[in-house]
Queue: 2 jobs
Job 1
Amino acid sequence: MERWLIVAALGLSGCVAVAPVVAPAPAPEAVAAEEPAPGAESERPAQVAVAVAPDTARRAAAIADSARDEEMLDQLHEVAAALPDGADEADLTALFDINVARYTQHDRVQFYLDFFQGQARERMTVWLSRLPVYEPMIRAALTAKGLPSDLVYLALIESGYSNTAVSRSKAVGMWQFMRGTAGDYGLRVTNWIDERRDPIKATSAAANYLADLTARFGGSHYLAAAAYNGGGGRVSRGLRMLGAGATQNYFDGAEAEEELAADLTGDDRFFHLSDSRYLHRETKNYVPKLIAAAMIAKQPEKYGFPSIPSVEPYAVDSIPVTEPTSLEVIAKAGDLPIETVTSLNRRYVRGMTPPGEVHWVRVPVGTAVSVTEALAAVPSEERVPAFGHTVGRRETMRSVARRYGISIAELVAFNGGLKSNSKLAAGSMLRIPGRARAAEAERSEPVGRAGSGRVHRVARGETLGSIARRYRVSVTQLLRWNDIGLSTPLAIGQRIRLGASAPARSAGKVTAAKVHVVRRGETLSAVARR
């Protein structure tokens, strides 16, 4: 198995060997070890216990650390710096490749410098300790897109370099992608995989997104950063409403009018816009937070923080896995810490690889061959450990077996003391064969999203339009996936494919493109809906 450094091979993030082993691996999320359950008393409903993981304390510590991250990130996004502006330029130009020097004395920047050194000091120290693990990878990705590498600090204020961060608005991962934007930039988000949690792929997507925003806003990295936070449309509308003829200088008149006019096409334009009412408060404060974080991260000792530790950068090998396999099983087969394998593979949200295709699992550098050979010796039936099911109200042996696609006999065999006609008590635990996990996950795929290979059965009164709206796809996609024409009538019970695994439409049936003439007051959203 070839080994690649992430700095050199970011573009191969989804392939055989991807770069970067977390020096100190993040705290683990332990996987429960399963033990045979005791039998139930004959006169009472069955109560079957599942063994508790021996490293519960370690897992609890990881959860607590993540909770502290989320609490401080929430405070960071909420805290207001409603202060007047005024600045002197600091001589820091050589230290940064973003325009920090011009704004170091800005009151909002000073506000966040104080905030990071005070209320957020404990979390900021943790976030700075994570920085050197991912910094080479992120800087390489940004540089490859022609961006300043100091935008690496944007991930600090987004997530504290946490791959498991989830915001209140459901943005996920180190770069805090919303589901829609993630899809636009090639990140898979399914019932099995969430590539927003993959530091390599998410970093590549973020670099592409920031490059697009920078081009959109005339090369201003601060307007691009504001758009990353608040949306490109909102920033564009704010700039239009602000108008090119605005004359209020955020330097309070300290600069000449001719310099102001020139700078309004650059990063000064963000600060001019942030003094208006056309941005949300969080977006107004986003760039000052970025500048303050960059100042501390570049010179932590100057601000009373420990120096950045010297650690190995994020680097990994990858192994192919051809059938559903638990990360726990992979770790045990390779004699690796479970928490290490889990932390390297956060994108597998169910703790196992999905069925149906080859998936690449990341392992520490130098272990790919040994882990692959050891895993090959693990039988298919042992690749997913048994797991627990909490009995719900009115559930029976038959309904539980049907839910997981197994026989009642198998359920009895996995739960000593039960009989095929045993009554189950709500809240009790049953052990379920591991192979049933994949089948259960397939049945629980969210209805609101189309996925490769899924099928919808047409109900009375449904049309292609209503089906497309339900699954958030276009009618054109449905036509292509199902090899039908726009005028093809739908029959009740007809199977409509909802994914790209469906055959492509024949070229002869493709509907001709149409042209729409924009009317006064119409927007892109209105035209798209029409």
Job 2
Amino acid sequence: MSDRAPDASRFEPSRKTLLFDRFMTHFIKIGGVLVITAVLGIFLYILIQIVPLFQGAKVKELATVALPKAEYPLVGSDESALLPFVVQPQGKLLFIDVEAGGATSEVDLGIIPPAAEGAAPPSISALNYSDRRQELIFALSNGTVSIVPLNYSVDFSAGKGKVVQNAKANEAIPLGNPGAAIAEIDFGDSGDAKLIAGIQQIGDQAELHAVRMTRKRSLIGAGKLVVDKTYNLTPLLKGKPVGLLVSSQADSVIVLTTEGDIQYFFRSGEEFELRQSFRPFGDLADPTVASMNFLFGDVSLVLSSASGVNRVFSLLRPEGSDTRTFVQTKQFPELPGAASFYAGSLRNKAFLTGAGKFASLRFSTTEEIRWEEELPFTVAQARISGKYHRLLFLDTESKLHLFDLQDPHPETSFKALFAKVWYEGYSEPSYQWQSTGGSDEFEPKLSLAPLIVGTLKGTFYAMLFAVPVALLAALYTSQFLTAKYKTVIKPTMEIMASLPSVVLGFLAALWVAPLIEQRVPSLLLLVVLLPLAAVSIGFGWSSLPYRKRRMIPAGYEFFVFLPVLVLVFYVSWEFGPTLEKYLFVVTDPLTGHKIADFRLWWPSVTGASYEQRNSLVVGFMMGFAVIPIIFTIAEDALSNVPDTLRSASLALGGSRWQTAMRIVVPTASAGIFSALMIGLGRAVGETMIVVMATGNTPVMDLNIFSGMRTLSANIAVELPEAPHHSTLYRTLFLGAMLLFLMTFFVNTVAEILRQRLREKYKTV
């Protein structure tokens, strides 16, 4: 042997290795920082998208136009507020060109006919304006009415689009008693029919008359409006009428009386009937109604009292009734006095009201005040532009004030997104998600509560099915199964995790859902008998003498258990219909005969619905997707428990079951918990299975036999149709933020608990 000492330089790493190690150290650090930065960037981007949902309206004055001194009874506008107008006392229209710096042009409509010899000419006694149809209606003191379409259009003759009008008065129509002055007038147009109603003053008496006009349509287009039927509603009145409204559907008339009563007349067939009479401010000392106006859609009434109380009444069907009547659904903060002006939006459920110098922009759905301010002038008339981007105020000094309005998301608030809201047509406040509808008057319903409940519901049923199966399978595979079969089972389970979600959803929708629908009693038997059989077999096997048990080598016991479990499965599946015949009998609502059908029995007994694509199907298929993840991670954690601990337990006399449950499982608890949390994260974020395997209906229902919609499925379904930066678009981002926060919270709590479990059960 050589006496020479070993060369220490042999154990020193090369410079190249040190440089590479240093590079990788910094590379990993930079990579970690970049990952954190990317996550924070995503969080910040989502936050930027959702912040505007909770901002109020912004209003800024753009211009003021001084008009000739006069008392203008009405102000109106085109939808862009580029050519507003005021009505002059003599019936002429004064148009204001905003783009031309407020230049005015006067239009004589010829509303007032020439007076008969020796008689005074008639005068304008009432008028009204339909923002939707951009039509004026004039009522004269001689008992006739005339409708004036403004005929707004865009002229490109000068090379640039310019809003122009071509207002023309239609032929005068007599209403009610000839020669009697009309004190109030309104009209509605459904397209094929037009209903005009007016209050005529005859001495100290007031009468209510209406006329329905129809338009004959042919192959060459719409024909001329002709009088179809006249109505005298005076005998149906209770009290003296002082105000009225006609719905845009031309089927109802709302009348206000001096006593503060509101009477609702509805046309049933060819005649009108008094459907409802109520006093909206009967609980106040002064029940007088100061203002009464329709909200967009003409389903709700916006009312204010003499003291400034502001309430909304909506048409709905009370429980137990088939007739729609008005019920109070909203109450806003009080105005400083009786409302002196009102303007409704044509885009949403917003309305502008106020008293004197005080103006308030309010949104009916959310019961929120979007903007309010004490203006430096007294408001006489107001109007909201058709595009909901301008506010027009006509003050008492004959000045027209144009304000810019920025309120892109009035439909949202914390209440609208997370609390109960009383929507139009609903009998009570509720949580609803319905982002689109079939008409412009649709009231968006953007409550995220049903989606959150659907997410938790789907996750719960998936984990309820997956956790017992995955954990028990992992425990058996790692602690009891022989290595020969373990090398087959584990890779097979891992391959299951690679199955695409869309394939599982497809199978769930077209195969599993119809199959389960016919075999629910069989599933109930399986849930009871399979665990019971497994426990019984295990208990019986452990009770056998050791000399009999050793006949089957350790790890091969499943050859005894599996046939028995398969037999129990088969018996349960086949015996299900027999069980249904005895336990789930119900009277068929169509025939009146007794039949055995779980699908009818469940709703009749529980009151809950039964749908083919339901949470049971989702729980089964989503659980099938989650099982491989939980199994793989849990099995690795259980298998990595040191053999020394297992051997020591067995040497001290512990059975394999005792060793597994009291030694192996606690030691591997941190890894098992991680498996559960990762599986939970997969279930929370699952999309395609939920979209395809449920009715995808957002309902607040924990019923296992009803469908649901989750946050992730809602984003997948709605986002392709959501206009960029629209309210729906940003609300979907809010749903994404909720998913982000839910998973972040769950993962944070899981990591804290995992570390504690690791410290508690760590081995030296």
